[in-house]
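RECORD TYPE: inverse folding
INPUT: structure tokens
STRUCTURE:
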């Protein structure tokens, strides 16, 4: 291994859900490592993230699109390839969560969560994989899973189901595409301080219970995920396939 093993110079990366939170931190982290980045926003423009990347001296472009709509995945991939001429890295970070007891969970909430968190991930992987295979230079796909890829959670049945699916999809695609030098892996963040967990952070009892369980004694920050994303997007991880990398402050080891 040499000093360039973690560099992404001249690589083209697409990060979904890059307007805020984990996605913004990942996009900026990849840019620090040398990548040119397409920043996607679902309902919020990722222009601020793209501007920060441009200020670093890298190159970024912002795109928007609702991933609950099947056609959005193709539009995003086409825009990325058209603008930068190819695609080397895909980070499927965009996601949503709807909370309700299972007996009250609506069909609409179930459908939306599964569509955004799982179906759109498959579509983007499929389209990116076709591009990478046709280009013949390999690639990296990093899916954002969750602790709920392993655990069931409470009052989030669709989210748990979708993230379990992301973990299994990651392994399935890794099995098929490793022969093309395409590494498909996932990151399973622990309890991160983002808008998705705002309700938990605001609940005094649940917040205390969560912190008591985390050996690190704190919520994760978006920047805690960036290093893992750089590793899985870089040559340093060329022999890592189908792995779900847990970044959780020790939660799963407790």
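DESIGNED SEQUENCE:
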């Amino acid at each position: 291994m040499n000093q360039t093993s973690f560099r992404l110079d001249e690589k083209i990366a697409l990060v979904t859900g890059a307007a805020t939170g984990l996605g913004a931190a990942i996009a900026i982290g990849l840019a620090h490592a040398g990548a040119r980045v397409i920043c996607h926003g679902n309902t919020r423009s990722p222009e601020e993230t793209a501007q920060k990347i441009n200020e670093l001296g890298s190159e970024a472009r912002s795109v928007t699109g609702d991933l609950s709509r099947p056609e959005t995945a193709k539009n995003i991939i086409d825009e990325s390839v058209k603008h930068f001429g190819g695609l080397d890295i895909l980070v499927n970070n965009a996601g949503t969560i709807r909370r309700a007891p299972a007996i009250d969970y609506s069909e609409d909430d179930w459908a939306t969560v599964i569509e955004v968190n799982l179906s759109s991930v498959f579509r983007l992987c499929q389209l990116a994989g076709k591009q990478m295979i046709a280009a013949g230079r390999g690639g990296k796909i990093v899916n954002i899973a969750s602790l709920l890829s392993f655990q069931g959670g409470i009052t989030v049945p669709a989210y748990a189901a979708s993230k379990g699916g992301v973990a299994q999809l990651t392994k399935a695609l890794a099995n098929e595409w490793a022969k093309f030098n395409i590494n498909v892996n996932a990151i399973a963040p622990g309890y991160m301080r983002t808008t998705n967990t705002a309700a938990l952070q605001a609940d005094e009892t649940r917040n205390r219970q969560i912190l008591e369980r985390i050996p690190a004694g704190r919520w994760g920050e978006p920047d805690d995920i960036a290093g893992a994303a750089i590793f899985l997007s870089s040559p340093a991880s060329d022999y890592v396939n189908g792995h779900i990398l847990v970044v959780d402050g020790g939660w799963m080891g407790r």
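NOTES: DSSP finds eight helices and seven strands in the chain.
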